[in-house]
């Protein structure tokens, strides 16, 4: 158990390369403890058997989590043909088997049916709630899990490699709410066999990519707050897709006090979401009504 540390004001993102076997909540807790941060959250759950990019928000960065959650995600995964498992990854029990193995050409032909907007049924072992209970709790208790199909967006899906007849490596770019375990399950079925994910790695979430990710051992090796702060990514990184608008110090103070800022000219079109800044400092997320900027999220940075 980690000893308690006095909380500090720490604001920013940690782009963690989550290790195999660790849950997202556990990873957030460890990073929060290392930084002695008062608040922490993450930009999208990763299963314990998945590795890769887990953006962790500290302090004021937690206010930008929804923008990261809504961002595009990229994964590399390995589909193991011939075995369906209860969890749709390597953790579960084998529930079906098949001797059928698709050819590379058959795989290539099937991929078009899994791009664009598609419907998928989430895995029974997922954190979705059914009548107030987590689906994975129901599944582990042996109860029926009835999850409805939902529409998700697959921007691209490609075959990367074929290590052997039993395995195929893929890369996928997708939108919010996509379950890669479900994608693998459904792709195997469409190819006339069954399958499960034997490996899954997230390589990007919104603006955060694996090239900038830091491993937990490296974070732990930094040890103390001053070196750790060098691993922080600015809060505003999560808002890179939102246009910035420079304000005066007086206008920034108005927003910090929850007051609208009236613009005499060059007001963004009504409904536009804007990143309000003064100097190089993020002040607030604001929405234009065509005349004034109304504060949506104010940052204490």
Give the helix level as a range of percent. 10-25%
Individual helix count = 8
Give helix and strand order, one letter per element, not per position: EHEEHEEEHEEEHEEHEEEHHEHEEEE
Low-confidence stretches: none
The largest sheet, given as strand count, sense and whether it forms a barrel, is: 10 strands, mixed
Number of domains: 3
**Which structural class fits the helix and strand makeup?**
alpha+beta
CATH homologous superfamily annotation of the largest domain: Pseudouridine synthase
End-to-end CA span: 31 Å
Find the count of extended strands (DSSP E, 2+ residues). 19
Query: What general outline do the C-alpha atoms trace?
Result: globular
Whole-number radius of gyration?
Answer: 22 Å
Instruction: Give the DSSP E fraction (strand runs of 2 or more residues).
Output: 35-45%
Name the average pLDDT. 90
Describe what you observe in this structure:
- It is a single chain.
- The protein is α+β, with helices and mostly antiparallel strands and 301 residues long.
- Helix content is 20%, strand content 36%.
- The chain has 8 helices and 19 strands.
- The strands form 4 sheets. Strands 1, 2, 3, 4, 7, 10, 11, 12, 13 and 14 form a 10-stranded mixed β-sheet that branches. It has a 5-stranded mixed β-sheet with strand order 15-17-18-19-16. A two-stranded antiparallel sheet has the order 5-6.
- The radius of gyration is 22 Å and the shape is globular.
- The model has no long low-confidence stretch (mean pLDDT 90).
């Amino acid at each position: 158990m980690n000893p308690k540390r006095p909380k500090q004001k720490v604001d920013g993102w940690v782009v963690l390369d989550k290790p195999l076997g660790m849950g997202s909540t556990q990873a957030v807790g460890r990073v929060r403890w290392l930084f002695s941060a008062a608040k922490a959250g993450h930009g999208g759950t990763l299963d314990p058997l998945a590795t890769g990019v887990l953006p962790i928000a500290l302090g004021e960065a937690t206010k930008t989590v929804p923008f990261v959650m809504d961002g595009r995600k990229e994964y590399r995964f390995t589909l193991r043909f011939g075995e369906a498992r209860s969890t749709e990854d390597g953790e579960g029990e084998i529930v079906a088997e098949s001797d059928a193995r698709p050819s590379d050409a058959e795989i290539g032909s099937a991929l078009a049916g899994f791009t664009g907007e598609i419907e998928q049924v989430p895995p029974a072992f997922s954190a979705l709630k059914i009548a107030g209970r987590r689906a994975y709790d129901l599944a582990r208790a042996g109860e029926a899990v009835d999850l409805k199909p939902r529409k998700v967006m697959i921007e691209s899906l490609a075959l990367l490699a074929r290590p052997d007849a039993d395995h195929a490596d893929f890369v996928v770019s997708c939108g919010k709410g996509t379950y890669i375990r479900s994608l693998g399950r459904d792709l195997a079925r469409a190819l006339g066999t069954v399958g499960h994910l034997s490996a899954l790695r997230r390589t990007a979430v919104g603006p955060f990519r694996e090239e900038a990710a830091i491993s937990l051992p490296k974070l732990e090796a930094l040890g103390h707050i001053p070196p750790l702060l060098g691993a922080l990514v600015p809060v505003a990184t999560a808002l890179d897709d939102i246009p910035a608008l420079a304000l005066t110090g007086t206008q920034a103070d108005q927003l910090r006090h929850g007051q609208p800022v009236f613009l005499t000219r060059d007001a963004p079109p009504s409904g536009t979401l804007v990143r309000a800044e003064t100097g190089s400092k993020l002040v607030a997320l604001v929405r234009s009504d065509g005349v004034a900027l109304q504060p949506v999220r104010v940052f204490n940075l």
